[in-house]
Design brief:
Jelly Rolls; Arc Repressor Mutant, subunit A; five-stranded antiparallel beta sheet; four-stranded antiparallel beta sheet; 12 helices
Length: 281
């Protein structure tokens, strides 16, 4: 079976950086961090999770709280006993345009016991977090990234995401067509070819894809190509080569498709992103 996550993670990296390990007591506000989400692991304690002053979750058992994209949130715990947290910033390459980040809900709350296959990693992560070994932060960063991959696996399999790329990746047949597009974005995929990849008739494939992924295969392929192109633009690669690599016959055709999606030319988008990066330094 084709590896559903290999092409995603190979093209769009995600990185973790630990910023807290220990108790949080009382009220703690965590502001949105530009270009970063947050992943919180609660080892013990009761926590009220609040967004804009409203309680969205009451956590009473060890749990995972995941914000793929920047979002301000508040934790309210017992002012004396508190709750034990290990927290990391999460950066998806490409930020809000990253296809993994955009496929996820804005907030995910799961008991740790419900995350299949994660227990050995969590045991190691918690042991490392509350010790003072050399290289501790580097180890924790990598362990958080492994936890993220396990979370993606679980979300694809448990059916909790009903529409979008991850929902499609969880479908036993659609996943084959999605992986084919991910691995060969420059190919001029026809509906018939994609249906054949999925082992479905043309009409059943088209309807199932639209219902499960939320768009047509053609629209999905264009979004994937543009996402790859944005990544390459930020790396400073020549526009002409990018256009060919992602499946457009010319720089002009690529520019038209890009502007249709984002309202600006690739060079304008590149300049705006580079300007924002410089301003943030």
């Amino acid at each position: 079976m084709a590896d559903r996550l290999a092409s995603l993670l190979g093209n769009f990296a995600m990185n973790a950086r630990i910023f807290h390990a220990g108790a949080l007591c009382g009220i703690n506000d965590l502001p949105a961090q530009e270009g970063m989400g947050q992943l919180h692991l609660i080892r013990a304690g009761a926590v009220d999770v609040m967004h804009d002053g409203s309680t969205v979750a009451h956590v009473t058992e060890p749990s995972l709280l995941f914000y793929p994209l920047p979002m301000a949130h508040r934790f309210r715990t017992d002012p004396e006993r508190g709750a034990d947290f290990v927290c990391a910033h999460i950066a998806f390459e490409g930020g809000a345009g990253n296809p993994i980040a955009t496929a996820l809900p804005p907030f995910i709350c799961r008991p740790l016991s419900a995350l299949e296959g994660v227990e050995p990693i969590l045991n190691l992560l918690f042991a490392e977090a509350f010790a003072q070994h050399c290289g501790r932060d580097a180890v924790l960063d990598r362990l958080f990234e492994i936890v993220l991959i396990q979370v993606l696996r679980n979300l694809m399999e448990d059916g909790s995401i009903r529409v979008g790329m991850l929902a499609g990746m969880g479908h036993p047949r659609l996943r084959l067509a999605l992986v084919a597009m991910h691995e060969q974005p420059a190919h001029a995929w026809s509906l018939e070819e994609l249906a054949a990849q999925a082992g479905m008739s043309r009409s059943v494939f088209a309807n199932t894809f639209r219902d499960r992924v939320g768009c047509t295969p053609g629209v999905y392929l264009q979004r994937w190509r543009i996402g790859l192109a944005q990544r390459a633009l930020l790396q400073g690669r020549p526009l002409k080569l990018i256009a060919i690599e992602v499946g457009y016959g010319s720089e002009a055709a690529f520019s038209r498709a890009f502007k249709a999606s984002y309202g600006v030319s690739p060079r304008q988008w590149q300049g705006e992103r580079q300007g924002s990066a410089m301003a943030a330094r």
